[in-house]
Amino acid sequence: MSDRFVVDPPQLDLLLKQLRLPTMRALWRGFTERADREGWSAARLLAALASQEVTDRERRRFERHRAEAKLPPGKTLDNFDFTLVPAVSKARVGVLASGDTWLDEGANVLLFGPPGTGKSHLAAGLGLSLVENGFRVLYQRTANLVQKLQAARRDLALEGAIRKLYKYHLLVLDDFSYVTSENAETSVLFELIGARYENRSLLVIANEPFSAWGRIFGGDAMTLAAVDRLVHRSHIFELNVESYRRRAAIAARRAEAGEPADGTQAGGPESG
Prior knowledge:
Elements: H1 9-18, H2 22-38, H3 42-69, H4 90-98, H5 100-104, E1 108-112, H6 119-132, E2 137-141, H7 142-154, H8 158-164, E3 170-174, H9 187-196, E4 201-206, H10 214-217, H11 220-231, E5 234-238, H12 244-257
Parallel strand pairs: 1-4, 1-5, 2-3, 3-4
Helix pairs in contact: 2-3, 3-6, 4-6, 7-8, 9-11
């Protein structure tokens, strides 16, 4: 009597489905045929299938987390031109992109500068790099998030709504300066900042300096308290330069025309 184990393919498919191993379920036939041809050991076959499952699981995780991050498309650190924003250190941003200790400490990143200076691009690129490194990120327009939190407060569910945001290592708040106490009850924003203080990180994108934030929070006391929590253990970047978008467009047009990036004519000085 043979003691050879007889494989029932439909049953094996069912077992792998129940174990939630979709990649192994899809690949086991091809791998076992190759193993038979090449004389693989059982351990090598199992290791090869398990490795494929882990790789594919990581790919699915990244795709899922990238989709849920709601990052502006097409904006990465690779296509961010740091030469147009000399005040921003590429090396410093690279350290932040690894996510190492600052996210564990609940530190914040604050980006200041006029419209068009590349703040949103930089924030989106940093967020994408963090997702690639296994962290969870959520990118939100501040006014939209405030409206959601206001609705949660009306439903007596604000604490739960804020708690749900804890799963994100970094919460990006774009257009922060556009929220004002005149058209939004921004105390929910203050509660969000307080809840994440030293626990989870925030990245704030603002067109205006701290001195103008009184109109966001509607009073000096709340403004000072919010700024104090945001600044503690923060990384601050000031992009007070000419419009990044305008300079990038000019540089692209000059490259297409074969002109030097500094605007000088080939073979002679820049014309007046």
